[in-house]
Amino acid sequence: MTGRARVLGTVRTRWRVLVRLGLWSVLEAGQAFVVGYALARALDAGFLAGNTPAGLLWLGAAGLAVGAGAYGTGRVYGVVAALVEPVRDRLVEAVVGRGVREADAGSLSGLTQQVEIARDTFAGLVLVSRSFLFTAAGALIGLCSLAPLLLTVVVPPLLAGMCLFAATLRPLARRQEAYLAADEALAEGLGAVCPGLRDVTAAGAEAQVAALTARSVDAELRAARALARWSLARVAALAVGGELPVVLLLVTAPWLLGHGVTPGALVGALAYVTQSLLPALQNLVHGLGTSGSRLTVVLRRLAPPTDSGTRRPDGRPESHQVPAPQHPPGTPALALTSVTFAYGPASTPVLDGLDLSVPAGAHLAVVGPSGIGKSTLAGLAAGLLEAREGAVRVYGQDVPGPEAAALRVLIPQEAYVHGGTLAENLGLFRKDPVPEAELLAAAEAVGLAPLLRALGGPGGRVDPVALSAGERQLIALARAYLSPAPLALLDEATCHLDPQAEARAERAFAARPGGTLVVVAHRISSARRAGRVLVLDGPRTACGTHDELLRTSARYQELVGGWTTEPTAPVR
Prior knowledge:
This protein has 19 helices and twelve strands. The chain is α/β, with parallel strands linked by helices. The strands form three sheets. The protein has a six-stranded mixed β-sheet with strand order 6-9-10-3-11-12, with helices on both faces. A four-stranded antiparallel β-sheet has the order 2-1-4-5, covered by helices on one side. The radius of gyration is 38 Å and the shape is elongated.
């Protein structure tokens, strides 16, 4: 049963409450009839006839009617509560039942937010629609009692305005629902992106995320504009039905007075329109136009879900993953062609015309003095930075780009670890949960096994604040090791590990099947382990093996001399 059917079914069973609501509404709306009629009689039979006491009596009667109407309004709110609360209870029963039967995680939101929205908007709709019906009836009866000719001036524009508003209800509700859906989609997207900005940056996915966010923003903008256009029709309906009768009464006043309508009746008619019909119509238009669409949306969402899409074994919807593109044999894992990069339009280039080719399966160490551009090179390869000139490609795919993003993983110096289980941290780059055997093997390979045991295994909870910098780096290394990306970029990713732990992690990445390793080195041992070494030294940049560079590169000889005594603790 849908949410709308539950509401209607509950209302039908509360007929006694509806009768009480109608009776109190008659008392409340009685003032709409009495005020205009009393004002007309106070003028015609009182002040204009020279009978001041009679005029004051009629005005006193109008005051009493206002007091009685206020009492009726107070009683109406109590009866509306008796009608609305059972509706809320039925919706709560439905939401809780669905949560128990289907283990629906969205039931909590439905229980705490959507049901309350449904209750409040339903109560508002009952109040404004009831008020309009009884107030309009009282005002029209009053007009007829004053002079039936007044109805010919007031009723046609009132009916026209109501028909125009009724014609906009369905399109307006659709536009309102589309706007709410677009707004929620944008909020959901931003809620997912903002906590993971570091992951987005580390994966080089800024362009992709920006494009997705821009599409959500544009969708909400289009929905808002469409809603605004239909809202103009709502304003037009209010002007035709509530304000045009006032203008017509003033314009036709000479004609009405010439056809037997008294001055008091004309003033009473103006009072009926401005004090009763116009406010009641205004409340109806705004109430149905806004609260009605909100109620429709909420009731649809409280209905049982009918999603039959593909779902993961844990019950979450299957997400799309960009498949890694195939590359022909011999394609370099990383290629930089005449790359120039500077941190500002007028800044001196950090890298100027750099050419580099790293074959698939290679192990490259990048060395050089501080500030020479080692991390800049890693950032370019990871897509975090964009070259001013030249091209950067990963397995033949342009960087930045979604295809290249799926082919490389960056492990920065400041490792990112989130709350949750260790297995959730390690499987962050995997589409599906990592099998425990594979996870344990990866932990053993990079040296994470002691920490894994200390945390209680893969299901152990991780508190990032309680971990040391080295422990966070081990988790980040194991996560990257489990990544499907073949190119691993270690930007001083082992700087908080001791030399033995660093050597173990680098050897694990170098031996990863089908993997390619680029290491920004901070120890001479990292350069010795690498198959090739890139020495960044401006115009004297050189690339070769450790032994070759010892013979040919003065800068490398200088760096090796500075590293002759290998520290037992990492260089910070």
